[in-house]
Design brief:
255 residues; alpha+beta; 2 domains; four-stranded mixed beta sheet; 11 strands; 36% helix; binds zinc ion
């Protein structure tokens, strides 16, 4: 009986000697993955959070990738201590620089170093990419309105200008304005009242995009690139027109 018992104990010891290290490695690997995912999630959350703040500032600032990068870096190092290293922002594009209107895109690269009792894990590189729209208020080149201006009750006084030609402002019925294409947004009502242009294939324009219609004479809507739209008119507050250097039209008095 005694020998049998010791044999069994011996077998158990051998079994433990084989499986315990595997078990420990398994547990450590699992612990490592959990820690790794926690770090990765915290970093991604901060990345998105800072990006959202950046997006909301796009209207006020010409975005500075350096500022953004240093802000994000200090936040990430603060939140993650030594668990990450080599934080780097790459491929920062804003607005027209990559041909995607109003979009901000960037890559975030960093290494995760989760410390474990055993040291055969080396820093693991992680890369995240974001693309989002910079909030610019409106897509036309209006000035930002100050708080004082916003509080002022002011009657709207619109005049008409050619943003791409001339420095006069006009009243709506001025002979110079009447036959020119007007800049407006594509809506279903425009789709109903006007036909699509066959030259510029404006039928494919999405609602909300900029289109051009001839107020008095036309029955067709166009893209800005259409040859029939070489200069267009748009309405603007008279004060903005003055500030931008427009002076009254000599024919109509400027509106
Ligand atoms: Zn005029
Ligand atoms: Zn056209």
């Amino acid at each position: 009986m005694l020998t049998h018992k010791s044999t069994k104990r011996g077998f158990l010891t051998v079994e433990a000697a084989i499986f315990l290290p595997i078990f420990i490695v398994g547990v450590l690997t699992f612990a490592y993955l959990i820690k790794f995912m926690a770090v990765q999630e915290r970093v991604f959350h901060a990345f998105v959070d800072e990006a959202r703040a950046l997006s909301s500032e796009a209207v006020f600032t010409k975005l500075k990738p350096l500022n953004f990068e240093s802000n994000l870096k200090s936040r990430l190092y603060l939140e993650n201590d030594t668990h990450i290293s080599n934080v780097d922002i790459d491929h920062f594009y804003y607005l027209f620089s990559n041909g995607t209107y109003g979009m901000i895109s960037m890559d975030l690269n960093y290494d995760v170093n989760v410390k474990l009792p055993i040291s055969f894990y080396s820093p693991l590189p992680v890369s995240e990419s974001l693309m989002f729209r910079g909030f610019v208020g409106k897509t036309m080149d209006g000035e930002n309105m100050g708080f004082d201006e916003m509080e002022k009750e002011k009657e709207s006084h619109l005049v008409w200008i050619f943003p791409t030609a001339g420095k006069r402002h006009h009243e709506k019925n001025c002979i110079y304005i009447a036959n020119e294409p007007m800049e407006t947004s594509m809506t279903s009502s425009i789709r109903r009242s006007y036909d699509a242009c066959k030259i510029c294939e404006s039928k494919r324009i999405a609602n909300g995009s900029t289109v051009y219609v001839f107020i008095k004479s036309g029955k067709v809507y166009h893209r800005g690139s259409c040859p029939t739209v070489d200069k267009y008119v748009t309405s603007i507050e008279i004060e903005d027109a003055r500030r931008k250097g427009y002076s009254p039209c000599l024919k109509c008095g400027g509106g």
